[in-house]
Amino acid sequence: MALQGHYAEHWLDENDNPAGGVSTGRGFTISWQNGPLGKMETIDRREPNGAFVEDVLQAVIGRIEFYQKSQFACEENSDALEMLALAAKMLDRRTKNREARAAEGTHTA
Question: What angle do CA 51, 56, 58 make, to 5 degrees?
């Protein structure tokens, strides 16, 4: 679904791996993480330089939860929260699988 006024640019590095990028729209600008951080607990681990999908997803969940505590609570918000929670769970599963394979923080598939 394309939203009017939304712009996204997603970058690849020299090896065609996903790199950073930017997404903007009415009231928001997201600069995405550019490059892997490196393996956990290593001396060459980098500090994050941009947003992660998981963090942005948690911000959206928080906003809809806020609506649900207001006069705007509704079934659609509840359904959206269930689906967003599932998305967050799947991304967490992906991270745990990558950690178990020692691939987290790298461009290893």
Answer: 135
Judge whether 109 lies within some domain. no
Split at pLDDT 50, 70, 90, the class of 76 is very high
Q: Are residues 5 and 21 in the same domain?
A: yes
pLDDT at residue 38, as a whole number = 80
The Cβ of residue 52 has, within 10 Å, a number of other Cβ atoms equal to 14
pLDDT score of 40: 66
Q: Map residue 41 onto helix, strand or coil.
A: coil
Q: Report the alpha-carbon distance of residue 20 to residue 5 in Å, rounded.
A: 21
- Shared-domain flag, residues 58 and 43: no
| Domain boundaries, position 73 | 52-104
* Per-residue tokens: 65: 């939860």
